[in-house]
Amino acid sequence: QVHVLELGGGLVQAGDSLRLSCAASGRTFGRYAMGWFRQAPGKGREFVAAINWSGERTSQSDSVKGRFTISRDNGWNTVYLQMNSMKPEDTAVYYCAADLSTDTVISGRSAYWGQGTQVTVSS
């Protein structure tokens, strides 16, 4: 079982950068694929990025490709989402997700989810 906690949300201006962290518990963290999702007010949860257990394979949505980067440090049980050139439409609650299957993470059906962290981008 994995417990995940998102850290690093806040208020930034358009064009700024922000890095989110997802700290995970459990000695088997290195076996899990991880992902980031977001949910804006009045909208459904949207896939942002995912990374496989080793960090060798990543996937991003078209809306963030070239601006956001997902990475992980298995030694620190942490996954990161580096967000650059942020836009007001990036405003959302960002969630971290974990599952043994990368495809399951991407599909949004992960077994484990965090509580989310608010990111607000002002224009």
Beta-strand share of residues: over 45%
- Computed structural class: mainly beta
Described by strand count, sense and barrel closure, the largest sheet is: 7 strands, mixed
Helix content: under 10%
For the record, give the distance between the C-alpha atoms at the N and C termini, rounded to a whole number. 40 Å
Report the uncertain regions: none
Mean pLDDT: 96
Radius of gyration: 13 Å
Number of E-state strands: 11
Offer a quick outline of the entry.
5% of the residues lie in helices and 49% in strands.
Features:
123 residues; mainly beta; seven-stranded mixed beta sheet; four-stranded antiparallel beta sheet; 11 strands; 49% strand
